[in-house]
Amino acid sequence: MTLSAEELIEDTSVTSHNFWIHYNSVEMNFSFDTSGCTIKAHKSGIQEYEAAIGQLVSIQKEKTYILSMTAASDSSAEVTFCIRQNSAPWFHYASRTLQLSPDYSTYTFKWVNSGPDAVELVELNEGLFGLQMGKLKGTLHITRFSLIEKEISTDDNNDFECPKEPQWSAAVKDKSTLPKGFAVYSNADQGGMFITELNKWNPVKLPGENNKVLFVSLSDDGRWILYSDRDSLHLIRIDGKFRTPVPVPGKSTTSGFLRSSPYASEIFFDSEASEVLYAMQVSFSDSSVSFGELRIIAQISPNYQFENYYRLTVYKDQIWGAITSVINGIPKRRSGFITIPESGMGTAKADNVYKFKPDNSEEVFGCNHAMSHDGKYCVASPGTAGETGSFSHCVPASHKGFYVTRFYKQSEQPVDVREHVHRYCESLNWCPSQYHFGEWNEIDFGNYYFTNDNQYLIASQSGDLSPRKGLWIINWKNNTWYPLNPDDQQINVTSCAAFVGKYDSKLLSEIIPGIDTTDTTDNDPIGYKVLKPSGGELFYTGEQCTILVVSRVDGNAAIKLQFDEHCFNLLTRSINPKVDSLIVITIPEFFLSRKIINGQLVVDTVRTSSTECKIVVEHYDKYVTKTAYSNGFFTIKSKTAVRPRIPFHNSSIKTVVTRSSINSITDKFFSGKLTQIALYDLLGRSVLQWDIYSGKPLPYDFMRNKMKSLDIYIIKYSFIDK
Questions:
Q1: Angle (CA) 20 11 77, round 5°
Q2: For residues 193 and 602, what is the distance between their CA atoms, to the nearest angstrom?
Q3: Low-confidence stretches of the chain (pLDDT beneath 70)
């Protein structure tokens, strides 16, 4: 079939031109005469696919099609030349993005519709051959469309062959063949969290949480869960015990465990404004959690921002997720990479965001981000970066699968934002074929999360037309999919995570009846030992202490000081005892401690003076049941006499203050009735401590200047009650 300009006018029996208006956001003038078709754009819509012109066609299997067009544009327009399905799921089977110029040019391509992935569009109005005009500007002239069908010959080369061969076929296997492990998920219909074995379906609700849950994340050893209930963050052990609020400064919209942190063990979370990403040190014992230093790992405004309530993932010095560029105050959503400077110890700025070609002004979306625990692989739904362009037919569009890419450092050469998905990805994974229909909100795969061995993903299936709703485990390297829940047990999953391999299954034996509690863990796989201090020593604060630790094999561990009921990191990095066995530290006078009390963030100092001190070597990244300690207790004493201090009484005031609210309280501070005041910056660092027992006058000028110089700070104060 060859369609000329004259036939475009006369052949009305097959609806010779098609104009699709999406969301009423398109305004274009179409005119036809013997010289061809002229299209003038006034409003081209906000998406690449919102205006199309084409011819209804039939497509047969085992045929070759020659696609050709002669066209020009006065604005160097980018258009997509394609054959697509003219009904849901609107798949593109041959697609090529063309950059038109003011001079007429002829574009010709060959599509070989053969093999296991061949398509057939023979029903009335089922196939459409033509143009999607993208965000067209100016005027487009078309003098010739041509679609010629011919028999396949042995020398046919497919100009539309995918540069990266997709995994079109997904094998579906029974979950009983999965390795030992467990999955945690939240259910929008019931609230709280549920846990089940991977190779059995025996879900139970975790005690201790009933709110609706987001951003479920598992610690490296599989013992602790970090999650959000929208208003706050919490950590809870996998058996539902020891629920602990995370002392977040303000409100966050995303969170997770920071894998292979350069500061030992950390979690991360963002600010409510999604401009700042924090990390906080965290220490776990068998039955408690303590929090240490808070730092900022990314502050990317005003050029970029993190997308509210989209999952971010962080590994050492790598951030992957929805990184929105801000152009003239307008957010442009897309997937992105950020490199944290100083090997993850610094703070990332806008210059540390990886730059795609051609620029960052186009909105191409992307969601359902996850990163492997070793930082090698990133996964996401492709968004329009994958659903448009020369090879969009290769990519699992509309949430019908995912792509896997390596991480791109800021220093690497820019690649095209579309070719990043089509050409340079590690894997293109399509969902099982029975779900290849519907828009993204009708059949929706998402909530991807890598297991700790990086071999599997856990994912959810949802959507208005979905015949099943629930959980899948996916071996992404060979595209094998394992449904976890039976088809007749529908689950509206809001978040999920999974752990594979060795874990302390005895923790779950109280809540999952009949669980296999065979001990598969190696109780001492690395062989840590603390040789110094060995017990009985006396140290004073401010003095040096020599720590000697050893191990049988290479390890990755944190060095901590345990005293009384407290345990804090001594180093802001991890160590490998095979290489770094002798460590010299200065005994600190105190540690900063963060807690949530009655819904309020409390930052306090914990003095190290104690007669029951031990050095702790705590491995992370993989599960170890035996943590090494000093052989006995040693003592720490303070050389500084502790002066009397007024405790903050019940009527004292603690608040977060901004520049805009400073005037409402400063008069009280200088009234002469102040008995005690503590001022902290947003990271919880002490700026000022004063009380009437200090024997010193209140430093009015210092305090006033500090308060005016800080954008936001935390203050606690009390007055003489008269």
A1: 45
A2: 28
A3: 1-26, 43-50, 134-135, 360, 388-390, 516-525, 595-603, 620-626, 640-675, 680-686, 691-696, 700, 704, 706-722
pLDDT value at residue 605:
74
The answer to whether 339 and 317 are in contact (CB under 8 A) is yes
List alpha helices for 551-630, DSSP H.
none
The kind and range of the H/E element at 140 are strand 139-151
Residues 544-583 as b/e (b if ≥16 CB within 10 A, e otherwise) read ebebebbbeeebbbbbbbbbeebbbbbbeebbebeeeeeb
pLDDT at residue 709 in the model: 64
> Beta-strand (E) ranges in 246-383?
255-258, 266-270, 276-284, 289-299, 304-306, 313-315, 318-327, 330-332, 335-339, 367-371, 378-381
Cα 266 to Cα 475: distance, rounded to the nearest angstrom? 28
What six digits make up the tokens of 626? 């035996």
Beta-carbon contacts of 113 under 8 Å, excluding residues fewer than 6 positions away, are 59, 60, 61, 62, 63, 64, 65, 93, 119
Triad 168, 169, 175: Cα angle to 5°: 135
Whole-angstrom distance, CA of residue 251 vs CA of residue 656: 13
**What is the tens place of the pLDDT at every residue in 432-470?**
988 988 888 899 999 999 999 999 999 999 999 999 999
Compute the CA torsion angle 549, 529, 522, 555 (nearest 10 deg).
Answer: 0
**Beta pairing, strands 590-597 & 566-569:** unpaired
The beta strand positions in 587-703, using DSSP E, are: 590-597, 600-607, 610-619, 628-629, 634-637, 653-658, 674-681, 686-691
Q: Which tokens hold the place of 599?
A: 């819904």
Contact 261, 267 (CB under 8 A): no
Instruction: Flag whether the pTM goes above 0.70.
Output: no
677 strand-pairing partners: 690, 717
Q: What confidence score (pLDDT) does residue 407 get?
A: 97
Q: What is the pLDDT of residue 130?
A: 81
Which pLDDT value is given to residue 162? Answer: 81
Amino acid at 223: R
B/e letters for 681-702, b = 16+ CB within 10 Å, e = fewer, are bbbbeebbebbeeeeeebeeee
Q: How far is 588 from 563, CA to CA, in rounded Å?
A: 13
Structure tokens at 105: 């040019």
Burial of 340 (0-12, 13-18, 19+ CB in 10 A): buried
Backbone CA torsion sign across 313, 319, 323, 329: positive
Give the number of residues written for the chain: 722
Residue 256 to residue 194: CA distance in whole angstroms: 18
Of 82, 156, 83, whose CA–CA distance to 115 is shortest? 156
Q: Are 584 and 616 in contact (CB under 8 A)?
A: no
Write down the H helix ranges in 285-418.
384-387
For residues 411-438, one letter each, b for 16 or more C-beta atoms within 10 angstroms of the residue's C-beta and e for the rest, the string is: eeeebbbbbbbbbebebbbbbbeebbbb
Give me 150's structure tokens.
């011919």
CA dihedral 330, 333, 335, 337 (to 10 degrees): 20
- How far is residue 54 from each of residues 79, 132, 146, 368, measured CA to CA in Å? 13, 8, 11, 33
Condensed to tens digits (0 to 9), the pLDDT of residues 226-241 reads 999 877 999 999 999 9
